[in-house]
Design a protein that fits this description.
mainly beta, 3 domains, SH3 type barrels
């Protein structure tokens, strides 16, 4: 099963949105959830809720209303933060300092503990630490849910080239990007695949 990051998502009662990311348990490289955007809001949906798939679309096993009931991927907390304000007193060189409290919005991702998100455009780095490309789409074994490989887009002057990267070639997946065991030269020798432009 290939998961196209930006694939169309259908529910049982019609078109819902599109895939924006996949959530991975990095230790055993299992994909556990998908991140699906509908009407401007991203929801985190268990992979088991995918009923069917074609080359360009996923179908979920519930309705759009049930999708709205899933946990939002991004939630906003409001944190009380002290803010200093300075007031100069007329006719004096002295000033008064006032400390007020202000509620500041802080966004957080609703990821299962220890898991990370793979998103389209996520940077990929070689063993040398070189930025060698970005994630275009991912593939998994439909039986085990294990992440098997991904398609990496690599820009070359005015064009892009697609490389197939196996899961065994990954060193780690973090929120900052994907780090490979292969060096710069080995990356250039990876199998290639045509890229498709995302809508």
């Amino acid at each position: 099963m290939n998961i196209k990051l930006h694939a169309v998502v259908d529910c049982s009662d019609g078109r819902a949105g599109h895939v924006t990311g996949a959530v991975v348990e990095p230790r055993d490289q299992t994909i556990t959830h998908l991140v699906i955007k509908m009407h401007g809001t991203e929801y985190i949906v268990p992979l088991s809720m995918v009923k069917d798939q074609t080359d360009e679309a996923l179908t979920l096993s519930f309705t759009k209303e049930q999708l709205r009931a899933q946990q939002p991927f991004i939630e906003t907390d409001y944190v009380r933060t002290p803010v200093d304000s300075v007031e100069f007193l007329p006719g004096y060189t002295a000033y008064a300092r006032n400390t007020d409290a202000e509620m500041v919005p802080v966004e957080r991702e609703n990821l299962p503990f220890g898991e990370v998100e793979i998103r389209i455009g996520m940077p990929v780095y070689s063993k040398n630490g070189t930025h060698v490309g970005h994630v275009d789409e991912i593939a998994l074994d439909p039986q085990s849910g294990r992440f098997t490989h991904f398609l990496m887009a690599h820009r070359q002057l005015l064009s892009e080239k697609g490389y197939v990267v196996g899961s065994w070639q990954l060193k780690s997946i973090t929120e900052d990007g994907i780090y490979l065991k292969t060096d710069d030269q080995e990356v250039r020798q990876l199998p290639t695949m045509a890229l498709k432009h995302h809508a």
